Amino acid sequence: MYYYDWNPYVPVAARRAQAARALARLAKKGRQTSPVVIDGRAIAKTFWGKAWCDNLERYSDFANRLPRGRTYVRNGSVVDLQIAPGTVTALVSGSHLYQVEVNVAAVPRPRWNAVCRDCSGAIDSLVELLQGRFSRGVMARLCQEKTGLFPSPREIAFACSCPDWASMCKHIAAVLYGIGARLDEKPDLLFALRKVAHQDLITRAGKGLAPRRKGPKAGRVLHEGDLSEMFGIDIATPAKPQSVRAKPVAAPARTRPATRSKKPKKATTPVRPRRKGPSKR
User: Fold this and answer.
1) Which are the contacts of 192, defined by CB distance < 8 A and separation ≥ 6?
2) Which of 61, 159, 163, 227 could disulfide-link 153, Cβ–Cβ 3.0 to 4.6 Å?
3) Are the CB atoms for 147 and 111 separated by under 8 Å?
4) Are the C-beta atoms of residues 189 and 183 closer than 8 Å to each other?
5) Count of CA atoms in the C-beta half-sphere (13 A) of 101
6) The whole model's pTM is what?
7) Is 83 in a helix, a strand, or coil?
8) Is-contact 87 195, C-beta < 8 A?
9) Helix 66-74 vs helix 170-185: angle between axes, to the nearest 10 degrees?
């Protein structure tokens, strides 16, 4: 190690080969790594990733080392990056494989409540929130310096195993940019890192609707007699429908089975006796 001088320059190809060997050794030990892969020149392409990187670059505390960090993250030197609540751990390939740790303070509760209050009703769904599809006013409020969601330099503490005596070395700067690139893929990690719940920013169903009107008090209800006197008309009271009792249904009478009728006998005409005439003598 060169504690009082710069380490010799290591070409990018050599750093990548060294990083590949180191990752292979870690894989044999059962460690799962998550490298930062940048496609093209842009480190971040979505709202959350860009907002994180823009926040880093507006603080003069980080200005000196950020350009070297951009180069390192673009050429694949951040070979592992893990984001947990309040903490980021990473491995960065340089002259050696260095361990980097970044601690980010939680958003103070009063500040977070103010952010949620100012954004209330402007974010409708989780998809809209994570995709960054909301108004410019909400974007400006979330990214507001010192009072928004993103950390200020005094809310970030970091350490690196490299021999660079600077408060922020190029390996730490590469990790900070790597966080922005990771937020492109998983923007909800920002809320976990700042130890706040992103659901607090989402308008809940029914919130903002007008309160339900209560019925009038008993003394303010006009009765039928009052209406008749006020308008000078007679209001007929509808007759209550009388309940009609259903008549019981009589059981059907039992009938005997029909019997076969006998044919009536024909009436016979009585035969009158024949009268005899006078005898001829």
Assistant:
1) 83, 84, 85
2) 61
3) yes
4) yes
5) 6
6) 0.68
7) strand
8) no
9) 60
Please name which of 255, 44, 244, 37 lies closest in space to residue 132, comparing C-alpha atoms: 44
User: Strand, helix or coil at 159?
Assistant: strand
As a whole number of angstroms, the distance between CA 191 and CA 233 comes to: 69
Are 70 and 10 in contact by the 8 Å Cβ rule? The answer is no
Provide long-range contacts, Cβ within 8 A and 24+ apart, for 85-93. 85/192, 85/193, 85/195, 86/193, 86/195, 88/175, 88/179, 88/193, 90/175, 90/178, 91/22, 91/33, 92/160, 92/171, 92/174, 92/175, 93/15, 93/16, 93/18, 93/19, 93/22
pLDDT at 227: 47
C-beta separation of 100 from 91 below 8 A: yes
Of 43, 85, 82, nearest to 191 (Cα)? Answer: 85
**CA of residue 131 relative to chain centroid, distance:** 12
* Residue 80: strand pairing partners: 91
End-to-end CA distance of the chain: give it in Å, rounded.
Answer: 191
Residue 6 φ then ψ, to 5°:
-70, 145
| Type of residue at 152 | S
